[in-house]
Amino acid sequence: TRRIDRHRIHDSHKEPLDMTPKRQKTAHGEISGNAADVEADVSIINPEIFSPEVLAQYKAKYADAKPYTHGVVTPLCDDARLRAVQAEMREHLTANFKETDLFKVLQTGDLVTIDKADPSIVPKIPELLRLRAAIYSPQFRAMVQEMTGCAPLTDRIDCSANVYPRSGHLLCHDDVIGTRCISYIIYLTDPDEGWTASDGGALELYPVIEPGTPAVDPTTELLPAWNSMAFFTVQPGRSFHSVQEVFAEDKPRLSISGWYHAAEAPKGSEHATLTQLQTRTGGDDDIEDFTPFPAAIAAIVKEAAAAEEDKKAGGGQAEKNEGDREERDEDEDCLQIWPDEEDLEYLARWVNPEYLQAENMLQIRAKMEEDSSVQLREFLIPEHAAAIRAATRVEDSGGALGDGRVPNRSAGIGGGWRAVGPTHKQRYLAYDPGAGADDASGRPGKDKPGKDKPGKAKGKGESAGAILHAIREELFASEPFARLLAAMTNLRPTAYKGDVRRFRPGLDYTVAHHGILTVDPRLDATLCVVDDEGDLKSSAWDFGECGGFECYIAADEEGDAADAATAAVYKAQGEDDEDELLSVSASFNTLSLVHRDEGLMRFVKYVSHLAPSSRWDVAMQYTVEGIDDSDDEEDEDGGEEDDEGAELE
C-alpha cells in the first residue's frame, strides 16, 4: 500500500504523470448544488444545438440508438472558449489518484462547490464556471429533456472532472444511484490530435442478456472526441457502460462528467448494479457446486454417529463405546488426516519436494495459524513449471496479448476457453475441455489416486488450458492433496470446486461483491502463473502497476464495503484502505493459501494491457472443518516412526 500522490491536470507531453498507485477502496457520498446559485449564461454553448431542426435530429437518433437510448452532441461549445476551459483545468485544478477494484483514475474534487470552497480560484477558472452554469441552465436542461424524452429535470448540479491516463479505466456499471436520470460526459481531449480506436478510452455500452445482466462484451463504443458531449438515460439494470482502458501513452483522457437529476428515483432499482453488488446471493454457499472428498465426509459421518451412540447409550456402555470408537479411528481410509507415505509418493510427482518435508509443513502451518494466509513460491516441480511457462507464452504471443499491445476481444476464446460474465461482476476466460477433449482423466478424489494416475509432464505443444486442467484434476482435486492441505493449515478439506482461469491483458478482472460472501469459512488455494522473468516484468507484477493482484477486503453488516467499492465509481472522498486485509501480487508458479472468513470478499484487479502476460490460475475453494488438537495428536501418534509425512509434531 502506497501514498496517494496529488497531480495537476496537465499535458503529459509537458510533464509525465507520476502514477504511484495506492490500492484502496474509497467511500463516496452524494454531492449537491443548485443551478439557481449561478447566472444562466449559455453563450459558451454552440447555438445551433438549440434550433428545432437540429434538436429534432438529435432526438430521433437518441430514440433509435442501441443497445439503449443514448446520443452525442458535437460540437458542443465554441471551440476557442472550450480550449480556454481545458487550459484552466490543466493549470488550476488538482486531482487525486484513485484505484479500487472498479477503476483507476485521476479525479478532482466536485465541481459543484469549487467556487464556494475556495473563492480565490474563481478568477482563475472563469470559463469553466461559465460552462458549468450553461449546462445546468434552464435552457440547456430543457434541451436535454426534449432530446432524451426524460422526466422533468431538477436544477441540481452534480459533476466532477476526471483524467484517465495511460492504463486508466472504469469497469462496467449502470450509474444508478438516487435520482440520477441522465448521465453525460463532456470530452476535453487534445483538440489538435484526433482520438482513434487504437488509443482506447472509449465509452463502451453493453446490451443486456436479461434485466440486470449485461453481455460479456459491449456492442457500441463512443470515442472521447474533442468538444463532444455524450448522453444516456440512467436505467436500472440496463444502462451498463464502462470506460475502456486508455492505451495511448501521451494522450490523457480529460473530461467533465455528471448527471441530471429527476425529482424521483427510477423504477426497477432491484436490478441496479449497486443493489446487486450489495446483495448476498448465496452462490458460494451452494454445496451442490462442491464435490466431496469421500474419506473426509466418511470421517465426519462416523464421528457424528459415534457421538449419537454415546448419547443414546450412556451409563455402563460408555467404556465399551469408547473402545469401539478407538477401533474406528484406526480405519485409515476414512479417518486419515495427514498425508502418508503413499500420498507423499504421489504428490512428489507434482509438488516441490521442499513442501513435502515435515518440518516445512510445520512452518507453513504456523504461518497459516498466525496470518490465515501463506504464499508458496516454486510450488510445482521444474518439469511441470517449464511446460506451463512455455505453453502460456506461446498462447499470449499468438493472441498478441500483453506488453502494451491493444487486445482483441476474441483473443483466447475457443479451444476449451469461454468468456465468463456477468460483466458488472467479472470477465475472464474459463477452461472447460468438454467430453473427450484434451482430457482423459476422471474425477480424482473419489478414489484414492497415486496408483494408476501418476502425474507426468505434458507433451510438447499441449495447450496451457489442458496442462492447467490436468493439474486441477490430478493434483488439486485429489485426496493426497487434501491431506497435504490439512497438514499445512490444520484445516480438513471436505469438498472442493474450482476453475482454470485466464485474465487477458486489457480485458479481464473480477469485482468484490456480497454475492461471494459465505456462511462458513473457505480455504482458497490459487496457483498463479504469469510471465515475471526478469526484473522489469517481476516489478510490474510485484508493485501492482499492471493489476492482476488478488485482494481480500472486509464487508460489514451495513454493506459499507460494497458501497465503497461500487459507489466509488461516482465521487471520491475517503483516503483510507482499512477494509483491505490482504493483497497478493501475481507471481509465477506460486500457490496462495488463504483461510477466508465468511465476512470477506475478494477480487482480481483488472489486468492492464501493459502487463507482461495474461494472469493464468487454477483457483480452488475447499469447504473445511477445523482439526482439534486431540485429532492432531492421535493421528501423529498413530503413524509409523519412520514416516516423515506423519511425524509433523
List keywords for this structure.
disordered N terminus, 649 residues, 26 strands, 12-stranded antiparallel beta sheet, 9-stranded antiparallel beta sheet, 28% helix, alpha+beta
Shape: elongated
Per DSSP, the total helix count is: 17
Q: Quote the beta fraction.
A: 15-25%
Based on DSSP secondary structure assignment, what is the total number of beta strands? 26
- Quaternary form: single chain
N/C terminus separation:
36 Å
- Briefly note the structural class of the backbone: alpha+beta
Q: Helix content range of the residues, please?
A: 25-40%
Radius of gyration: 28 Å
Mean pLDDT, all residues: 83
Main pleated sheet: 12 strands, antiparallel
- Uncertain segments: 1-32, 328-335, 435-457, 559-578, 630-649
Task: Give an overview of the whole structure.
- The longest helix has 20 residues, at about 295-315.
- The model is unreliable at about 1-30, about 330-335, about 435-455, about 560-580 and about 630-649 (pLDDT under 50).
- The protein is about 30% helix and about 20% strand.
- Helix 7 runs antiparallel to helix 8 (about 320-330).
- The protein has about 650 residues and is an alpha+beta fold.
